[in-house]
Every structure is written in C-alpha cells, then in structure tokens.
Amino acid sequence: MFTFTPASNPFKWSGSCWSVENDDLLAEMVARVALGQAHHVQEILQNTGCESIAPQFSALQGARKLLTVKNPSSPYHRDGWLFQTISWIASHITHPELLKSPPQMIHAHKGFDSLQIGLSESGQEADFVLIGEDKATENPRSMLTDKVWPELGTFDRGERDNELISETMTILALNTSIDARLTVSKIFWEKVRRYRVAVATDEDHIAPTSRAKLFKGLEAFPKNGTESDRLAELLCRDDLRSWFSEVAVKAITHAEKLTDSANV
After folding, report:
1. What is the pLDDT of residues 192-220, one digit of tens each?
2. Cβ neighbours around 3 below 10 Å, total
3. Which of 85, 111, 164, 182 lies 20 to 30 A from 77 at CA?
4. Angle between the 76-94 and 38-46 helix axes, to the nearest 10 degrees?
5. Rounded distance, CA 108 to CA 132, Å?
6. What's the distance, Cα to Cα, between the start and end of the chain in Å?
7. Pairing between strand 99-100 and 13-20?
8. pLDDT at 262 exceeding the cut of 60
C-alpha cells in the first residue's frame, strides 16, 4: 500500500517520505474507517488472514458525508479528514507497537489530529506520548510556521495538559492490561512529550534540502528533546487535490460495495 523512504535531519528530526503504491487498497481502508470500522482496519493491518467484519448499511450515509465535498471550490475539510485517516493508516504500518487514538469522525474537529502512546518494555507503563499534527496544504511552510509550531508550543508549555491527560486515559483504558489511572498519575508530563508532524503537499519538497527548509523549527519541540523525539513525515504529489478526490470516489464505491454485500 505504501513505500516509506527514511529521511532525517541529523540531531533535529527523523521520519520518512511516503509513496502510495496501491490507491485501491488504500481507498478500501479509508472506506472502512468512514464506515466506523477503524478497529477492524487496525486488525487488518496488524494481522494477516483477519476475518472480514460486515459493516452496517446504516453507516453508509455518514461515510458518504465524510468523503464528499459540499463546495467543490473548498475541499479542505474533506481533504484534511482524508489525510488524517491516511496518516493514521501509515502510522499503523510504520509503528504498529504504539497505542493509537482512532481517526476523528467529524470534519475540522478541534481535538488532536492524532495521539499515540509508547509503552515501557514491561508493557505496564507509558513511556511517551506522541502528539501528531497532520496537514494537507499547497503552502506547507506557512502552515507550519503560522499554525503548527504555535500549536506544538501550547503542548510543550503544558497549556493543554488537561486534554492530553484525558485523551491518554481514554487510549490506555482500551488496553485492559494497564491500570490507566495509576499509569497517568505516574507520568512526568514535561518529560514524555514527543511530536509527529505529517504533511501532504507538492513534489517541490522531496529533495533533502527542501525537506530541511520545510521542517525548520521542529527541532524546538520538545524543548531539550532529541532527534528521536521528533518525527517529520512527508507525502508529496503534484496532483494532490485531484488525487484526494480520486481516493474519495474510490472509497465511496468501496463503502457502497461493502454495505451492499453485508446486507443482501
């Protein structure tokens, strides 16, 4: 489905450049997420031979809404949701060991783009929380400097620890082998924050020098962090908006087929 090419800026950040190799398979995974089957998609990505779960026909209307642009001249909310979902799928492939929040099911949701938790070797404690920002844009540099870096700053200064703690509790509570309340109470929040910034944009940013310029400033988050505390992910396509539209159309088709076959 994807090819991941390692990319890094030594002592500042690490990450990868993504290439989508199978649009149709990706669209099917997106369709299942839109139908409310994020957990099933996670199982498919982590376990070969996973038994298919039939989606409910009643979920189709909501899936179509997520995958459809109301105003053709303003596809940004749909594309934003689509890229968040694609980024979530990619993260399950590159970092399957991390606990993850499911994709949001509302366009332009004001919560976390993503949140992932790394566990200790014992599997009983949280080692770090990985706060994610996913942005699809034709103006990536201004998006990062004007919106993303200030957003990361609010997390780094602890201004949104109430949200972070609440969401972390929710994710940990899904793992029944962990005492979520005890784990959260023992976390030193100022020491466990890591950041993942994923950007979908045009192909002008593929070259290493362009990537370095694009993500300049990420090295400030977290304060006193290391290269391993910062992930910079990049999906580059010159046909970005039309490609999103094509994936969305394919996903709607998959959603219709999945619900039709489940309700014959």
Report:
1. 999 999 999 999 999 999 999 999 999 99
2. 10
3. 164
4. 30
5. 15
6. 29
7. unpaired
8. no
Q: Which residues of 179-190 are buried (b: 16+ CB within 10 A; e: fewer)?
A: ebeebbeebeee
Per-residue buried b or exposed e for 26-50, using 16+ beta carbons within 10 Å of the residue's own CB: bbbbbbbbbbbbbebbbebbeeeee
* Contacts for 162 with CB less than 8 Å, ≥ 6 apart: none
In the chain, the number of structural domains is: 1
Please give the residue range of the domain that contains residue 111.
2-262
Q: What tokens were used for 106?
A: 């509302």
The reported pLDDT for the residue numbered 48 is 58
User: What's the pLDDT band for 54 if we cut at 50, 70, 90?
Assistant: confident
Please report the pLDDT score of residue 176 as a whole number. 63
Q: What's the whole-number mean pLDDT along residues 34-54?
A: 84
